[in-house]
Specification:
Distance between the termini: 30 Å
Mean pLDDT: 90
Helix content: 25-40%
Largest sheet: 9 strands, mixed
Low-confidence stretches: 1-19
Structural class: alpha/beta
Strand content: 15-25%
Strand order of the largest sheet: 11-10-12-13-21-20-19-16-17
Bound molecules: glutamine
Radius of gyration: 25 Å
Number of strands: 21
Number of helices: 22
Shape: globular
Length: 598
């Protein structure tokens, strides 16, 4: 259920932070002469977690459905340079891009909704902006001047936005038509002030026809009376206006559809025409949000505001409609045991959940995820928290398949090893992602090769049986942006493996990575002899990317994170394989795939 909480949903790293990138000023000016970029700014008011990200990406979807090319920028006003060092417990998952950017999970939502490939530059943080300004200051670029928030920080923000909006993200040549900018946080937050001011200046410089401001707000209902309250929105619009930004649209989040009276009040007190008051009430799944906007003719009103009516085509959301309805009508589900460390906050594994959803829908199934805190499976928990221990094992045994996702640190590792062992010994379909793959290697080395102390250097640096080792190029002292990050190629060692068949490519696959440790190449020979085959490796042949256990219906580990490239309608191969295997359809699917019938 899509409800009023952070909608179960959805960057320059160092190099980029050093200098504003992309297009030279000359080519930018040339482009601008031809046609101006149209900006849609999405801000948020009243409370955080309203689902601005989904709202903003859904706006992008309806504009794309009108034939426009859309890109997006997410602004995160925190001081971290990027999301790489932030805890998934606190902030949800760290999303990884092709170029290795470690960014806010909302960028994942944009990639999935708009089917684009963003760059790290598409996520702006206060940290990146200050870093770039301070570097320029040290170089002497502002010699003689006092460097200030206004104009230096605000200019840097504007330049960044204008440059990055021109990067093509949809595989086509040249810049997009529209750039959706989502400003994180809530209007009035101290840390977002320089961004608000920069956006106000941007609005002024690009002019009315090229800028559209949509303010997402909450319309709560108070208990007994049951009346939809508009006052919090009125206050937040007043705050926005005081900062010089006048919203053209309100996107009102509410549990139930907005009543006419509330719309009238909002229009009158917030100075927004009734036709521009959009309502995003709770819906069964997030794929309905673009449809909701279309049903309220949001696309027409936004196109009008941006003077794009003449270039847009008739809105076509057939595929979205089919997807949303299919998903609503699925009744059968498949139980998936998700054994991880950060199971308290489902946003910590947002892309994994989305990838499971994509795979399940392709099989006309609903994912029923049993969240299992890995530490609850451990022997210690039998004594300390016996109920949680029993429940965890019951869930694991009741599931049709097991997934161990990525993670860092040793909490829960013992439990993950137990889960991997359970799946291996009981022929239960298993998918290990990144840490999950490393776990399966440790488990196999301990149980089958009888290397009792087999471990990863991450958890036991002194172990004599280092089956997972620190990667030579990593850094143990600097945590930000020092992992093996982004898209890398995996070469299949044989076309005769499940992974190659699922990817429907016998040669290679490009997936995104985020890890510091890897399987020790010295142990690979013994593991393979005992049946754990490394069917996918990097171009050097020394780096293990995909493992498959022989004589098991489906036991796969991947060093990369396939979840980041999964798309609605184009599920990620390892996830699809897991769901197919869990429901006894894998063999038939592979046969159909080989005959070209999928
Ligand atoms: N902690 C492991 C590593 O750094 C796995 C990382 C992950 O799962 N993303 O290699």
């Amino acid at each position: 259920m899509w409800i009023l909480r952070r909608y179960a949903f959805c960057t320059f790293t160092r190099a980029a932070a050093q200098q504003i990138p992309v297009l030279s000023r000359v080519s930018r000016e040339k482009y601008k002469e031809k046609r101006r970029m149209k900006y849609v700014l999405v801000t948020g008011g009243v409370v955080s977690g309203l689902g601005k990200g989904v709202t903003a990406s859904s706006i992008g979807v309806v504009l794309k459905a009108c034939g426009l090319r859309v890109t997006s920028i997410k602004i995160d006003p925190y001081l971290n340079t990027d999301a790489g060092t932030m805890s998934p417990f606190e902030h949800g998952e760290v999303f990884v891009l092709d170029d290795g950017g470690e960014v806010d999970l909302d960028l994942g939502n944009y990639e999935r909704f708009l089917d684009v490939t963003l760059t790290k530059d598409n996520n702006i943080t206060t940290g990146k902006i200050y870093q770039s300004v301070l570097e320029k200051e040290r170089k002497g670029d502002y010699l003689g001047k006092t460097v200030q928030v206004v104009p230096h920080i605000t200019d840097a923000i504007k330049d960044w936005i204008e440059s990055v909006s021109l990067i093509p993200v949809d595989g086509k040549e040249g810049p997009a038509d529209v750039c959706v900018i989502e400003l994180g946080g809530t209007v009035g937050d101290i840390e977002s002030m320089p961004f608000i001011e920069a956006l106000r200046q941007l609005y002024f410089s690009v002019g009315q026809d090229n800028f559209c401001l949509i303010h997402v707000s909450l319309i709560p209902v108070l208990g007994v009376v049951g009346e939809q309250k508009t006052k919090p929105t009125q206050h937040s619009v007043r705050e926005l206006r005081a900062l010089g930004l006048i919203p053209h649209f309100l996107a009102c989040r509410s549990a139930q559809p907005l009543v006419e009276n509330a719309k009238q009040k909002l229009s009158q007190f917030c100075h927004v025409p009734v036709a521009n008051i959009l309502n995003i009430h709770d819906v069964p799944n997030i794929w309905h949000v673009p449809l909701l906007l279309r049903n309220q003719s949001a696309h027409d009103a936004i196109l009008k505001q941006l003077d794009l009516l003449s270039v847009a085509r008739h809105v076509d959301l057939q595929e979205w409609t089919r997807r949303a309805e299919t998903s609503d009508n699925i009744t059968k589900s498949v139980r998936i045991a998700m054994v991880g460390k950060y199971v308290g906050l489902t946003d910590s594994y947002l892309s994994v959940v989305k990838a499971l959803m994509h795979a399940c829908i392709a099989c006309s199934l609903k994912p029923s995820i049993d969240w299992i805190a890995a530490s609850d499976l451990e022997d210690d928990s039998a004594k300390l928290t016996p109920e949680a221990h029993a429940a965890a094992w019951k869930n694991l045994r009741g599931a049709a398949c097991v997934l161990v996702p990525g993670g860092f640190g040793d909490r829960g590792v013992k439990g993950m090893i137990l889960a991997a062992r359970y799946a291996r010994e009981n022929s239960v379909p298993f998918l290990g992602i990144c840490l999950g793959m490393q776990i399966s290697v440790i488990e196999f080395a301990r149980s089958v090769l009888h290397l009792d102390k087999a471990n990863s250097e991450e958890f036991d640096p002194q172990t004599p049986d280092r089956v997972v080792i620190f990667m030579p190029e990593g850094s143990k002292t600097h945590m930000g942006s020092t992992m093996r990050l982004g898209s890398r190629r995996t070469l299949f060692q044989t076309p005769d493996c499940i992974a190659a068949k699922l990817y429907n490519n016998s040669e290679y696959v490009d997936e995104r990575h985020r890890h510091r440790y890897e399987v020790n190449p010295d142990i690979v020979g013994s593991l393979e002899e005992a049946g754990l085959k490394f069917v996918g490796r990097d171009e050097s042949g020394k780096r293990m990317e995909i493992l498959e256990l022989q004589d098991h219906p489906f036991y796969i580990g991947v060093q990369f994170h396939p979840e980041f490239k999964s798309r609605p309608g184009r599920p990620s191969a390892p996830f699809l394989g897991l769901v197919l295997a869990a429901t006894g359809q894998l063999e038939a699917f592979v046969k159909r795939q080989q005959n070209g019938n999928v």
